[in-house]
Amino acid sequence: MEMLWTPLHAKIHRTIRARHLFEPNQSLLVAVSGGQDSLCLIKILLDLQPKWGWRLGIAHCDHCWRDDSQANARHVESLAKIWETPFYLATAKEPVKSEAAARNWRYQALSKIAQTNNYQYIVTGHTASDRAETLLYNLIRGTGADGLQALTWQRPLTASIMLVRPLLEITRSETEKFCQEFNLPIWEDATNQDWKYARNRIRQELLPYLQENFNPKVESALAQTAELLQAEVEYLEQTAGNLRLDAMELGKGDDIALRLNRRVLRTAPLALQRRVMRQVLQQILPDAPGFEHIEKLTALITAPNRSQTDPFPGGAIAQVIDDWICFQDL
Ligand SMILES: Nc1ncnc2c1ncn2[C@@H]1O[C@H](COP(=O)(O)OP(=O)(O)OP(=O)(O)O)[C@@H](O)[C@H]1O
């Protein structure tokens, strides 16, 4: 069968080259749910394969939370057979309960398959639309820039395995059109899982509303915002990391307990002060630190001597002793 080369093929080909997502002859494990995005992804990668010499594999995760999940898995398996591509299935032992649990289990299962079968990359079908939805979802919940930068092009999953998302500049309507064009048999996800509910409403109600009333290209615009924020967050986090080391370094030697030098922190911009405090709290608290925790700790940078915070979750308190903010377990 002759291969049809579309503008979408060309775009993904260019993206992979320009962003150095993959090099020739590497081993790519593609995560295929059977939905339109991951079918579009695997079809394009299969078509690009002769140009790049990749070794491709298809992995599917059966979460066991839908009646049709086994049929879904078999559907993907039969496509893998048609495409003469190795197929790997991970099946959850017990149904997973939440979005977070499902995601954790999935990435662990995928990593294990990749490790056992020598794939360097796990590839997912996240799109610009996913990016826009995640950005809106986190914006409404009230995260800072870090929640809005959502979904990176690549990030390490383990020391030897990279997670890569080549479709981040493609919208859902483009993957849908692509699947129609190539008659790819999409497995419709019929569930209305609780955790998917908010996202579905963003997808089906909020984004179309914004599109009609504010900006026809709202999805791409939001995805682009996420892209810009990503570089800014990376820069701020790195700078804050260095500042945190500077603030702690002066206390080195005599001291085992964690402490931060206020003179070092006082001259830094507020944005960095907050990030330093968040990084410190991330090490101390059992859960992700909230806005209030970070603000209270940041206030100690200029507070009078002997000021202290209430106990943080887990019991630690922070106290000002002259030039230092000191942490004590209660
Ligand atoms: N059951 C599955 N088996 C294999 N891959 C999957 C499965 N579900 C999702 N994926 C991969 O993850 C991508 C994103 O899927 P989707 O948006 O449905 O999940 P999500 O839960 O929002 O993802 P994440 O939790 O990673 O943000 C898909 O394009 C696909 O590559």
Automatic annotation (TrEMBL):
Predominant subcellular localization, coarse grouping: cytoplasm
Which parts of the sequence belong to the tRNA(Ile)-lysidine synthase substrate-binding domain?
260-313
Keywords tagged on the record: ATP-binding, Cytoplasm, Ligase, Nucleotide-binding, tRNA processing
Catalytic reaction annotation = cytidine(34) in tRNA(Ile2) + L-lysine + ATP = lysidine(34) in tRNA(Ile2) + AMP + diphosphate + H(+)
The UniProt record lists the EC number as 6.3.4.19
Matches recorded under SUPFAM superfamilies: Adenine nucleotide alpha hydrolases-like, MesJ substrate recognition domain-like
GO BP terms: namely: tRNA modification
Binding-site list for ATP:
S33, G34, G35, Q36, D37, S38
Which residue intervals define the domain tRNA(Ile)-lysidine/2-thiocytidine synthase N-terminal in the entry?
28-205
* Cellular localization per UniProt: Cytoplasm
Query: Its GO CC terms?
Result: cytoplasm
HAMAP family annotated for this entry? tRNA_Ile_lys_synt (MF_01161)
Name recorded for this polypeptide: tRNA(Ile)-lysidine synthase
Molecular-function annotations in GO: ATP binding; tRNA(Ile)-lysidine synthase activity
Q: What is known of its domains?
A: The N-terminal region contains the highly conserved SGGXDS motif, predicted to be a P-loop motif involved in ATP binding.
What does this protein's UniProt record list under function?
Ligates lysine onto the cytidine present at position 34 of the AUA codon-specific tRNA(Ile) that contains the anticodon CAU, in an ATP-dependent manner. Cytidine is converted to lysidine, thus changing the amino acid specificity of the tRNA from methionine to isoleucine.
Give the superkingdom in one word.
Answer: Bacteria
Family (UniProt): Belongs to the tRNA(Ile)-lysidine synthase family.
